[in-house]
Amino acid sequence: MKLNTLWLLAATAALATTAFTAQAKYNGEDRGRPVMPAQSNAQWVAECGSCHMAFPPGLLPAASWKKVMTGLDKHFGTDASLSAADTQMITDYLVKHASNRWSANTAPLKITDGEWFKTKHRAGEIDPAVWKRESVKSPANCMACHRAADQGDFDEDNVRIPK
User: Fold this and answer.
1) pLDDT for residue 93
2) What is the 3-state secondary structure (H, E, C) of the chain?
3) What are the boundaries of the signal sequence (predicted)?
4) How many C-beta atoms surround the C-beta of residue 38 within 10 A?
5) Higher-confidence position of 15 and 70
6) Fewest C-beta atoms under 10 Å: which of 9, 47, 95, 126?
7) What sign has the CA pseudo-torsion 93, 94, 95, 96?
């Protein structure tokens, strides 16, 4: 009986350590798995993708998407207002497919403000001058370096930083 109890305690400790490490990795601000859901939403692609890449929902938590969608009248300096029905449909889609691994009590408006993004794009690895290149323009232009970002592919092996 003691052996079973010891095994159970060891297994529980291992699971707790794994859970803590996963949360601590990016201070609990981790992108979801998968980043891009299997089913797309045509309205989301059409509306959001008309001005920028339709960012994969798994890059932010549900609270962030709710904040973004309630502020479309002042969407990063642009009025991106939609009808109430379209706003609700897109919000529902983004919230349903938001990051399932975000445990922090944060809700950044920008993907670039999240710890996962900051860790993966730290200045020691990427020269800050890269963001100013005409071919890149800003950290929000995922497609400049991640050619399949619109499909949710952010694999480091596929990154090509343009000149």
Assistant:
1) 97
2) CHHHHHHHHHHHHHHHHHHHHHHHHCCCCCCCCCCCCCCCCHHHHHHHCCCCCCCCHHHCCHHHHHHHHHCHHHECCECCCCCHHHHHHHHHHHHHCCCCCCCCCCCCCCHHHCHHHHHHCCCCCCCHHHHHCCCCCCCCCHHHCECCHHHCCCCHHHECCCC
3) 1-24
4) 7
5) 70
6) 9
7) positive
Residue 75, phi then psi, degrees to nearest 5? -80, 90
68-109 pLDDT, tens digit per residue, is 999 999 999 999 999 999 999 999 999 999 999 999 999 999
Tens digits of residue pLDDT in 20-34: 444 467 888 888 888
Tokens of 142: 């995922």
Domains of the chain: which residue ranges?
29-158
Exposed e or buried b for every residue in 14-31, given b needs 16+ CB within 10 A?
A: eeeeeeeeebeebebbbb
Token pair recorded at residue 159: 């990154």
Span 54-67, average pLDDT: 96
Candidate from 16-20, 66-70, 92-96, 131-135 with smallest mean pLDDT = 16-20
The distance of Cα 25 from the centroid of its chain, to the nearest Å, equals 15
